[in-house]
């Protein structure tokens, strides 16, 4: 009986007790992957991306290009007048998009007015506050006695920071903002409207930016300290050598060599957005969506959010925090 | 022969003052021209590249661009570089005033007080020289024209742009320029130009207006002026690199998708900007002299007080006072003498014919 059972549970091949070619001991644990996958597809994914940068850097167009649909604030609101607001506003627009049966609730958080005023001191404060507020909301749900089955996740997973393509170096505003916010959220810096720069200018600019980020101790995504293993590190090192990505966005299609491509048409040529010889949009898209989306969410929930949570729960008790092995500067990161 | 009765020197009736313009021309060619151009705009808008492209020279050979950390500490500087350019015997002494640090700081509230102080200072100096005793070698360092660089990335003018232009439009000729125009497609460029012109109107900013062509100019010139006026603000691209394109060498920028030619009017307005500057250099100087300088001068003199804190002026004022005092003294003494004479006369008469020994 027992023998029969084991054969029935296992495969159809009897004799050999060991050897990789024989599925003798196949239990079927890996079927769980399929179950998780089905569940995830039913549940859908949530992704919250914040875009920060001065007016006119192509933030809305880039979002539309990334998700190949009109997901930006500008596409939803009928305003044709693009007036610069007097103070920074935080505007969230959510969309449900679907691809091959996978549903995603994408929220794009826009920050019009950032960096546009004459006096831009403390313009990062409203943004910091918003990010912390989302963490707070999640925390409140978590510590509730009667918790929801699925806590709605409005935490900002990724903040794309748009650097103007001056070709020289970062501006004081860029350094200040990234320095403060890289401690509470994943920052992905990009060079906006990169079709202003020739390839040499682009390489020089990127090198300069990387130097300045290093000199100021700014850790952008993918952060070195969160690499899990050697394989991760290898992949992420390659990415770290390429950031910031020099991107060009467009939601208009043109005919190029018999194919319809997204691009920008000028008198001296057509810039193809998805052509890696022209710009690095494809790398950004792959990073954010195709390869590292889950990783971005994981780092947000297991590291940034946890830091916030520990700090909040130990509000007046830094001794306990130290006992938990969390260094002071991590706690202080959420200060504005 | 009736024809050309004033051109032939031997004709009776020929005076010869028709030659005057030639004499003026020859004298000014010998003397040379002076022109001061100020460039203002945020870092990284291609100002230096454009100036080098415009005048086919390198005005900034030892340039070092500071990093972000250094920029935090810096205030706006004024850097003037002078270069002598000669072309076909005509000498131009060009001074380019650069304003590094403008708009870089996180708080740009005060970034233009230095610039305005510089412009006023040049007017003050000229006023002082003009009112001085030795007027032979007055150097004209007044700012004749200011190129204001607008970023092509925004949707129009930024608050800083508006504030700055309003602060200087009564002191200097403002020529707005859209920088790095190869960021824009043709449609985006037109839209931006219209937007900027609307905003300039809306805020009452007075930019430099090209004078209409005189009715006696030829048609080509009139047409050129029309085209120039319709293209303001000029959307320019600068470069001093030679690129091989379509078999010939052109100045341009090489991208993977094509070459932007600086001197191609279909690609950008560089040629128009250069034409405008060159054909209107004289007019820019005139407007600076007749309008901006005169405004400054009348304001300054109305405010009264000493003309300047340095120079011999204070002594002259005192000299005047001393002179007046001396004159008053003289008059008094003359009156006294007259009185004494009158008295002596009376005494003389009273004493009769006594013997005077």
TrEMBL record, chain A:
InterPro entries noted in UniProt: G_SEPTIN_dom (IPR030379), P-loop_NTPase (IPR027417), Septin (IPR016491)
Highest taxon above the source species: Eukaryota
Domain Septin-type G, first and last residues per copy: 43-315
Keywords: Cell cycle, Cell division, Cytoplasm, Cytoskeleton, GTP-binding, Nucleotide-binding
GO MF entries: GTP binding
Principal localisation: cytoplasm
Protein's name in the database: Septin 9a
Organism taxonomic ancestry: Eukaryota, Metazoa, Chordata, Craniata, Vertebrata
Automatic annotation (TrEMBL), chain B:
InterPro entries on file: G_SEPTIN_dom, P-loop_NTPase, Septin, Septin2
Keyword Nucleotide-binding: yes
Residue stretches spanning the membrane: none
GO molecular function terms listed in the Swiss-Prot or TrEMBL record: GTP binding
Entries under Pfam families matching the protein: Septin
Chief location category: membrane
GO biological process terms on file: cell division
Annotated localization: Cell projection, Cilium membrane; Cleavage furrow; Cytoplasm, Cytoskeleton, Spindle; Midbody
Septin-type G domain: residues covered: 31-303
A GO cellular component entry from the record: midbody
Sorted UniProt keywords: Cell cycle, Cell division, Cell membrane, Cell projection, Cytoplasm, Cytoskeleton, GTP-binding, Membrane, Mitosis, Nucleotide-binding
Gene3D superfamilies, A to Z: P-loop containing nucleotide triphosphate hydrolases
Signal peptide positions (record): none
Domain of life of the source: Eukaryota
Similarity section: Belongs to the TRAFAC class TrmE-Era-EngA-EngB-Septin-like GTPase superfamily. Septin GTPase family.
Designated name of the protein: Septin 2
Organism: Lates calcarifer (Barramundi)
């Amino acid at each position: 009986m027992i023998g029969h059972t084991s054969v029935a549970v296992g495969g159809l091949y009897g004799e050999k007790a060991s050897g990789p070619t024989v599925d003798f001991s196949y239990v079927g644990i890996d079927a769980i992957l399929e179950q998780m996958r089905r569940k995830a597809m039913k549940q859908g994914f949530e992704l919250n991306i914040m875009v920060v940068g001065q007016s006119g850097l192509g933030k809305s167009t880039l979002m539309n290009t990334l998700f190949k649909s009109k997901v930006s604030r500008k596409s939803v609101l009928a305003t044709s007048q693009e007036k610069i607001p007097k103070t920074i506003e935080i505007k969230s627009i959510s969309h449900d998009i679907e691809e091959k049966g996978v549903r995603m609730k994408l929220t794009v958080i826009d920050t019009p007015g950032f960096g546009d005023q004459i006096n831009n001191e403390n313009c990062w404060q409203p943004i910091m506050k918003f990010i912390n507020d989302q963490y707070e909301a999640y925390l409140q749900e978590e510590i509730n006695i009667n918790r929801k089955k699925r806590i709605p996740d409005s935490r900002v997973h990724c903040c794309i920071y748009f650097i103007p393509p001056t070709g020289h170096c970062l501006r004081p505003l860029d350094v200040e903002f990234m320095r403060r916010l890289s401690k509470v959220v994943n920052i992905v810096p990009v060079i906006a409207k990169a079709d202003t720069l020739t390839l040499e200018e682009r390489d020089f600019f990127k090198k300069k930016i990387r130097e300045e980020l290093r000199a100021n101790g700014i850790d952008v995504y993918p952060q070195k300290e969160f690499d899990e293993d050697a394989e991760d590190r290898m992949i992420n090192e390659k990415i770290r050598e390429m950031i910031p990505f020099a991107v060009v966005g467009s939601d208009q299609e043109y005919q190029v060599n018999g194919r319809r491509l997204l691009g920008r048409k000028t008198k001296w040529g057509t810039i193809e957005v998805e052509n890696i010889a022209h710009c690095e949009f494809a790398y950004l898209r792959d990073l954010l969506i195709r390869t590292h989306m889950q990783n971005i969410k994981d780092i947000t929930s297991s590291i940034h959010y946890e830091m916030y949570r520990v700090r909040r729960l130990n509000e007046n008790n830094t001794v306990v925090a130290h006992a938990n092995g969390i260094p002071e500067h991590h706690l202080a990161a959420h200060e504005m | 022969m009736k024809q050309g009765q004033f051109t032939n020197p031997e004709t009776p009736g020929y005076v010869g003052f028709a030659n005057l313009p030639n004499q003026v021309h020859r004298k000014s060619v010998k003397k040379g021209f002076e022109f001061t151009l100020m460039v203002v705009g945020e870092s990284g808008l291609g100002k230096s590249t454009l100036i080098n492209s415009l005048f086919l020279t390198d005005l900034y050979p030892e340039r070092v661009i500071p990093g972000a950390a250094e920029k935090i500490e810096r205030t706006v500087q004024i850097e003037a570089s002078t270069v002598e350019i000669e072309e076909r015997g005509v000498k131009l002494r060009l001074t380019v005033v650069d304003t590094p640090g403008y708009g870089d700081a996180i708080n740009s509230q005060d970034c233009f007080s230095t610039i305005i102080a510089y412009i006023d200072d040049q007017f003050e100096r000229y006023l002082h020289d003009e009112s001085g005793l030795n007027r032979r070698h007055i150097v004209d360092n007044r700012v004749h024209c200011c190129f204001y660089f607008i970023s092509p990335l925004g949707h129009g003018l930024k608050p800083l742009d508006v504030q700055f232009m309003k602060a200087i439009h009564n002191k200097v000729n403002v020529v707005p320029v859209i920088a790095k125009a190869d960021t824009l497609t043709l449609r985006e460029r037109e839209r931006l130009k219209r937007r900027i012109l609307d905003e300039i109107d809306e805020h009452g900013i007075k930019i430099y207006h090209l004078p209409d062509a005189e009715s006696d100019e030829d048609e080509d010139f009139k047409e050129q002026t029309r085209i120039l006026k319709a293209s303001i603000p000029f959307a320019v691209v600068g470069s001093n690199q030679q690129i091989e394109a379509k078999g010939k060498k052109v100045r341009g920028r090489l991208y993977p998708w094509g070459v932007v030619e600086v001197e191609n009017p279909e690609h950008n307005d560089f040629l128009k900007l250069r034409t405008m500057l060159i054909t209107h250099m004289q007019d820019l100087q005139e407007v600076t002299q007749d309008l901006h300088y005169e405004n400054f001068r009348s304001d300054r003199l109305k405010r009264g007080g000493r003309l300047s804190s340095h120079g011999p002026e204070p002594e002259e004022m005192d000299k005047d006072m001393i002179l007046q005092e001396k004159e008053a003294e003289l008059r008094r003494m003359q009156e006294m003498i007259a009185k004494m004479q009158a008295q002596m006369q009376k005494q003389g008469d009273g004493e009769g014919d006594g013997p005077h020994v």
